[in-house]
Write the structure tokens for this entry.
Amino acid sequence: LTFFAPRSATVKMNVKYKIVLFTSGSGTNAEKIIEHFKDHPLIRVVLLLSNNPNAFALERAKKYKVPTRVFSKQQFHESEVLAWLQEKEITHIVLAGFLWLIPVHIIKAFPHQIVNIHPSLLPKYGGKGMYGSKVHEAVVAAGERETGITIHEVDAVYDEGKILFQAQCRVEPTETPQQVADKVHTLEYANYPKVVEQWILKS
């Protein structure tokens, strides 16, 4: 009698890389990443963390049975959040709409293992306070004819880590910040999961 284990059980045993997602809001990018890796033979999202108890990302994660936790600034800047990551044997941290600067002790614990996506072509329109609609409003106000996304490693300064990938889109003179945001979101969903996968497999 030959016994064949279900595919899902086999995949779980072979997972080599474990991702944690950090997010502060809706979690659309987080959901795309969870979907991308849900049947991956080597990589899995095993935890989603948020600094916002009302983040809809928490509901998105539950749909895929990904464990979630909410943390305070104190837990983040002391050792508690890091302890959660170590407990889950996290290998890579992926930021998906996360608005706080990562503490130095976490960066040191995960050198070159933290990645972020920013909704502009860095170094333009980056830095503290530049996120989401604020970026797109600034792009339109400046009369830019091109914008896009930047995927980069995370260091101790907002949006200044090593750039891994950029993708561009046109900005038409008549477009609103929301229309620009829609184009940028399309780039994010198409590219972030794939770039994260390539980045992890090369690490």
